[in-house]
Amino acid sequence: MIHILGRTWGLLLFLLFLPTDVSAQQNQDETVCIQCHGGIPGAIGAPVRQWQGSIHQRHGVLCFHCHGGDPTDFGLAHSPERGFLGAPGDEDVPKFCGRCHVGVTEDYFESAHGQALGAGGPNCVTCHGSHAVQRATSELINPQDCTRCHEYGRAEEIKNAIAGTEAFISSLEGDVAALHRLGIDTSRLEGSIFSVRNEFRRLFHSVDVERVRNETDNFQQQLGVIAGQVEALQAELARRKVWGGAVVVLLILAGVLSLLLYKSYMEGKEG
Amino acid sequence: MGSRRLFLTTALGAIGAVLAFAAGWPVWRYLSPMEEPGEEERIALDREDVPLGVAHFFRFRGQPAVVLQSSPGVYYAFSAICTHLGCIVQWLPEQREFLCPCHAGRFSPDGRVLSGPPPRPLDSLPVTVVDNRLLIG
Amino acid sequence: MPKRIVDWLDLRLGIRDILEQNLTKYLLPRNINIWYTLGAVLLTLFALQFATGILLLIYYQPSPQEAFSSVQRIMNEIPYGWLLRNLHAVGSNLIVAVLLLHMLSALFMGSYKRPRELTWVSGFLLLNLSLGLCLTGYLLPWSQLSFWATTIATDAAGAIPLLGADLVGFLRGGTAVGEDTLGRFFALHVMGFPLLFGLLVAFHLFCVRRTGVSKPPFGPDYTPPKEHDRFHHEHHPGGIPFFPHYMAKEAGVISFFLALLVAITFFAPGLFIPPTANIPADPFVTPPGIKPEWYFLWAYQVLKIFPSELMGLAVQVVAMTLLALLPFIDRSPERRPARRPLFVALFICGIAIFVGLSIWGYFS
Predict the structure, then answer these.
(1) Is residue A70 part of a domain?
(2) How far apart are CA C44 and CA C22, in angstroms?
(3) Residue A11 has pLDDT above 60, yes or no
(4) Are the C-beta atoms of residues C301 and C361 closer than 8 Å to each other?
(5) Which residue in A43, A194, A252, C86 is deepest, having the highest Cβ count within 10 Å?
(6) A23 pLDDT exceeds 80?
(7) Handedness of CA A100, A106, A108, A114 (dihedral sign)
């Protein structure tokens, strides 16, 4: 008896436990790039550590996606035949990043920033950083960083011009994240917001205050359409709560009445 | 005592009936066939709007879509929403391909992924040519 | 009309007698308390799991390619699919909580003792089977949570010497969690376990009915029942009828638990559904901070405390085996808590350790 029970237990038990350390993290990052560079102290290994926790790392953008080379073979990791590019020079940075970030790069090249490339103008990493790059926010426009090259005045104007739309975008992103948390399929909404955000950020990479002001209405309108869809979902959730609340009240009422009935039976028995 | 019990059982019965309906209705709806979305709306375009090698963007069932005449008389229509993150693709006439400006996803004129992160081809829409018009959907 | 139907059935099956014997003439101890209603609460909740489970099965697709999107479809497109899915998920958590309460009351009142050992053992197996249902059900939505919780849970079997690696592979149906894991977990969740579960519930209820309800060991007029050498059904002359008296009380408590279930489902569905449950499974990206469900936190923490996984596993096996075999270890007929100070002390310690480890596991 004991033996059988013990065994049943044992078998069930293996199914039951969810122990600890997540040791499978390696899968994703297990490129030869990281195996070598990750262990090197100083400047040669630093990019790996900076990249960890970056927006690129979180979205699965690995070393070779930008720098090329063969991430599976130590010998060919730095081979130009396998597309190894190494680190770009200052003037090549916009094209380097622009292989993926097509839209913003286009507008950047047309902007005063892009025109001044090679003559002291900023490239992508001047403002965004390189390996440790984070999700861009309008906080990248700030007195400390802008005044490294020029006065803050015009930058501040741009920042003010985009503030309303940027705030609208982040509040929508927050609302959509809250909906997603409840199991609502928000992929389409997220896509729409992403698309508008991308277009809008293209726009202000032109660093042209007039253009930003002129086109803001258009963006506000597009965001308004998305906000309408978000509000419709929120209204639906609120409606559900009303019905759920009503059922809860009815169930509690049924519980109280049942217990009163029980009491009346018990009193009847005694009386 | 009898009347109190009668009241209680009647009230419980009534609540039970309401709750039974509240439980039954969702199940009924859950099991009922859903209306087929989509069939209802089709869009007609003039063939002149879509010359050879030109992509024409339009709104289809509330979403951006594109129709393209890739070779004489051959039309392709797609949802213009990139399958990666939902940006709107552009048509590059010189390269003869679609480009998503967000992360450089490239699609061929028939919607296949050429390169970049999109996980699947552009969602294609049926096109029929009727006289001088293109019927989409 | 109803009378004619009953007459028709009565003539053939003698149902009036069955109903009488099991309802109006089925007498329960006069001092029966509210803890005795938890069995009925569990039956109701399980019935609800079966019903919602069958309905979910209509639209669910058990393949890695389809599973997540089919659950998304249930949640977003099928009318009221969200309701059934959330009821099923919240219900499973509520069931575990009520199972634990049901077990604690049986422990405190000593009702596991002779002649009710089989009721206890079948109940204990039902608890484990329920946890097995929870674990297998966890994988089915094929979310990040599903995938990694299952990976980690099956990985624990690897701590067993010699057999470990083979066992992990056997549980998963492959070296890693994948299509074949989903297949076997699905089969267990919707067929294997429910079938066993139904049989065990029937046996459990049969035991309860056959031996008779135990008298709560409280009050001045409680006297321990005589020990019998032969089968003896414990009668309660002068007790309260099961129907309509006690059933009204059960209906009341069931309503309150259903109210709780509906309240959580509508107002806090995220309570038992972590954010990673809304992201499709990705075998290449482990999400940070995967924690087991609250009812496995104690086990999770035990594994962390001990220097080797094997020791942690062994401690769990010993603890659970002791609990399973309790009626054969604690054999004194005394059931009054006041006269069992050692047991009550252990009982309180046990709860404190369970709660303490769970909280520790939650914050660690």
Answers:
(1) yes
(2) 19
(3) no
(4) yes
(5) C86
(6) no
(7) positive
HSE, CB side, 13 Å, CA atoms: give it for residue A180: 17
Tokens of A121: 């103008």
pLDDT of residue A25: 39
pLDDT score, position B23: 96
To the nearest whole Å, the CA of C55 is away from the closest chain B CA by: 8
What is the model's pLDDT at position C5? 92
| ipTM for the assembly | 0.94
* The model's pTM: 0.81
Q: Does domain C31-218+238-291 have CATH number 3.10.20.340?
A: no
Contacts of C328 in chain A (CB under 8 A): 1-2
Query: What does the alpha-carbon distance between residue A156 and residue A43 come to, in Å, rounded to a whole number?
Result: 34
CA distance C235 to chain B (A): 28
From B46-60, C56-70, C97-111, C228-242, the region with the lowest mean pLDDT = B46-60
Residue C85 near residue C49 (C-beta atoms within 8 A): no
pLDDT in the model for residue B39: 54
Nearest one of C74, C79, C77 to C53, comparing CA atoms: C74
Query: Is residue B86 within 8 Å of residue B105, measured between CB atoms?
Result: no
Describe the strand order of the beta sheet including B74-79 as a list of residue ranges: B55-60, B63-71, B74-79, B124-125
Q: B8: which chain A residues are within 8 Å (Cβ-Cβ)?
A: 257, 260-261, 264
Q: What are the sequence ranges of the domains in chain C?
A: 31-218+238-291
Residue B37 banded pLDDT, cuts 50, 70, 90: low
Counted domains in chain A:
2
What is the structure's pLDDT at B128? 86
CB B78 within 8 A of CB B113: no
Q: Which CATH superfamily is domain B43-136 in?
A: Rieske [2Fe-2S] iron-sulphur domain (2.102.10.10)
**Cross-chain Cβ contact B1/A271 below 8 Å:** yes
Average of per-residue pLDDT values in chain B: 87
Residue A19 phi/psi, 5° resolution?
A: -75, -160
- Alpha helix stretches (DSSP H) within chain C: 2-13, 15-19, 38-59, 67-76, 81-108, 117-139, 144-155, 164-172, 179-187, 193-211, 247-267, 297-305, 309-324, 326-329, 341-363
pLDDT for A24: 36
| Nearest CA-CA partner of C299 in A11, A13, A5, A7 | A13
Q: Do A194 and B16 touch (CB under 8 A)?
A: no
